[in-house]
Amino acid sequence: MKITLRVLLILILGTVPAWAVLGQYESSVSVDQQYLRSEDRVQAFQAYKVHQLTSANGTIVREYISPQGLVFGVAWQAPFMPNMQQLLGSYVTNLQTASPTQTQVRHLRGRIVKTNDFVFVSGGHMRFWKGRAYVPSLLPNNVSAEVVR
Amino acid sequence: MILRNGSKATLARFLAVATGLIFSGGCGGSSSSSSTSTPAANNTAPMTVGFGPLGAPGGFVDGLFTSVTVCLPGTSTCQTIPDVLVDSESVGLRILNSALTTFPASSLGTITNNGNQLQECLQFGDLSYVWGPVLVADVELGGEKASSVPIQVIGDTTFNAPSNCFGTNPIGLNDDTVANLGANGILGVQNYAQDCGGSCTSSGAFFTGYPYYVCPSDVCSETFVPLTSQVWNTVAAFSSADNNGVLITLPSIPATGAADGSVSGSLIFGIGTQTDNALASSAIVYALDAYGNFPQVTYNGTQYTSPNNGSFIDTGSSGLFVLDASTLGIADCRDNGYYCPSQTLTLSNIALTGYGNVGSGTVSLSIANADALFAANPTFAAFNNLGSDSGTGPSTDFFDFGLPFFFGRRVYIGMMPGQFSGESSAPSGASSTYGYWAF
Asked: For residue B157, what are the domain limits?
């Protein structure tokens, strides 16, 4: 249920200080916003909050915030693949260590990685890439992972 | 492309004015661009389905391959490169540096900015990436020829890949070798004329994943690139009128599959430009949306809508990546990434809708147990019923109708109109804003 909708329009031209954001505090969203040079629109639902970062080139990143203030999910849609290191933070190691059985299908179009507490999906085609990643243990009570989209 | 109608010197001047990017090498003038009514070109390149150069195991399953002839621009110095993956969902020719044995990449034409060679880093959805210079070649496919077309030579190690390609801290595979790519290159025949398009031409901020670079003093940074200097769809650059799309035909195969290399098909250039590529009256034309997807696919009462559930057809996908195992109520295989249903699953009445309601029809898919298929015939590499997960839940699942979908079909991939001068118009009945698929 949508409770409030407020729009923040901030243009920041500074340098990128560090990686964000999955599993970190909401404040790290602003790092991604700077990196993506994007507008940040915040939408609050009963059990979570969504920051939607929209760049001029059509890249959209949505970051999902739990009541504890942690980013429990990230979703993206972009003409070119976003920088996963930036979106996933330390969780990117889950992609680097994924075992061959999880990645054996040979095709360039996408990848799915599931570990004990990390789910990652990437897919699409040239000029249209999308995906999501979330941390099941950080999902708010009574919130389905399906909201991360 | 633009080169067809004017002298290359004109193009070079245009580029110089526009961005400082300069074509050189192979700029011999085809200045006698007489408006000859040339005889129809042989517009067909043969294709085979198989494992590709790695064989089994390790190679592709359901890999679609053709041969491409690459020539030094304006010369008859050419090399035919086999085992190039035909990919209907990427744009442009990308050839492994290691596959160029007749002449080195350095003898191809260059595209430079202040003397610095244009480079490209492309990352794919599986997080693997290619990296290398954008060079100018004459490219021949079947009897068709594209003169002085920008291609990418991947695996050139003159410069290290920038971090956008994860060159320093790799997450995905570097596809710049045969071992990792599983092919000698990629021939992308998607509905666009250039790989990036307007996103890479404009001034303003560079975005994450931005593909084009120059590397002065060994430091690579992003650079804007006019359409003419981006990697081009080879088909869009043909000197013939067969430049408005392709027709991909593959025969039917048994549900048990077919042996490596035993399935032959045709990559036919142009749509409605010759007698062999007429748009069949039985074909349904589906207009693509702005994302290059079916706007909507409906299955089992659920609507999968682009962009969140953006669905597409793709010869470069080695399976039917549809929905997910739990939504379909089947199992994933334990030892590979495919589906392993206990009995073959039929998905019937998958309803497809085109953009602006141009196109509506239904298709059916069959998904068999991949372990059983592979075990029954280890030398088989072509299957019409291999499936796998597209995602992990309905809110983001989609339909990627990969190579298995193409067997027994004639599939037209229509170019987005209005992308370049000299683009042949789509046949009647195939109007679209962003291009179309028809089958």
From this structure: 2-28+42-237
